[in-house]
Amino acid sequence: MMGAGEDFFFNGTIDANGNYEITGLAAGVYVVEITQDIGTSDDNEQKVSAGAPDGSPDIAVSSVTVNLTEGETKTGVNLTAEDGYSISGVVTVPEAPANDFSWLGEISADALETKSGSGFSIMGNNFNGGTSYRYKVTHILPGNYVVSAWSDIYVPVSAEVEIASADVSNINLDWKKGANIIGILVNADTGEAVTSEDQVMVMCEADPWIEGSWRGTSSGDTGASSYIETRDVGGTPGKIHLANVPEGSYIVRVQSEWGERTDGTKNYANTTIAGIKVSQSNVDNTQDVDVGTIKLKEGVTISGTVTDTNGNLLANIKMGAKPQDLHDGDFFIDAQTKSDGTWTLYGIDPDISYWTVVAADRWGWMEDID
To answer: Which of 87, 93, 242, 331 has its CA 20 to 30 A from that of 364?
Structure first.
C-alpha cells in the first residue's frame, strides 16, 4: 500500500479467505494494491524471478485509491484478482557491457491511460557477456501500454503495446548511442581549467522535456559515460562529456556541489547555457555538439541556522535556495544542516540580488514558489 507523508508504504497480509487489513494509517490519500515481484525472465537463467518464482499463479490486480480522514476506518475496499498477462522481447546494446552489476537502465510497462506501471533495473551481467538480453514483464492487466527501455547511457527507446486476451512477445527494444554534448570549463578570471575536483558537476536536459534527455557528471566518477576530464583521465582538464543524448533543444547547467570548501577549492557560481540544438543527424551519427568554453566566476555563500519553535538547533534539515529572477529553466542549490544547526549554501551568483531560501524536508517545495 502506498500513501502520502513521510511513510510511503504500509503493509498488510491476506488470510486464507482473501481478507486483508492495513492498520496504523494517518489521514491522507492512499493507493491500495497487491504488491508482487513483476520480475524479469532470461532464457539463459542468468536472472530468473519472473512473475511467480514460487510457482504461484501470475495474477494481476488493479489498484484502488482511498481518501482516509483522521480516525476513520474504511471497509469494503475490495480488490479483484484475475489472470495476468506478460510482455516480452529482447533488449540489444551496441557493444557488450561489463559482465558485472553495473546499472545500465530499466525496463517499464506503463498504462497509457493512467501513466503508471512497473519496471525493473537492467544490469551489465544480464547480457552475460553478449549484446542482447531477453526480458519479460508480468502481472499485466488488459489495456494499452508503453514499454520503455530507459537509460542515461544510451538513447532511450519505447514501443506501444495492446494487451487484449493473450501474452505479447517480440517487443524488441534497441539501445543505441546518441549525440554527445562537449565543452570546456575554465575559471573566468584566470583561464585555468575547472574539473570535478573543484566540486562542480555538469548536467543537461532537453527543454521542452524529452524522456531520457537528462545527463549528469558526478564528482570523482571519471569512469562514467558522462564526466569531466582531468589530467589523469582524458588528458584535457575541464573538458565535459554528456554522452548519448537524444534529439532536442538543451539546457546545460554547471552547478556547485554542496559541502565545505577545503584545500583551496573554489566556490563557483551556478551557470546556465540554454538553446543548445541537438539534431537527429547528430544523434544518428553519434556526433559531438560543442558548446565551447564555459567561463565560471566565483560565487558567494548564504549561511545561517535552523531552530524549532522553542529555539532548539536542528540537525540534518534539508535546505534549498532558488533565484527569484529565474530564467532558462529551474535550478536550485541545496545543503543540509550540521549537528549544530548551521548550514551554508555554496554556488550563489553574486549578480543575482534576490533568492528564496527554504528549510524543507519534503519534495516539491520548489514548485510552490512563484
So the answer is: 242
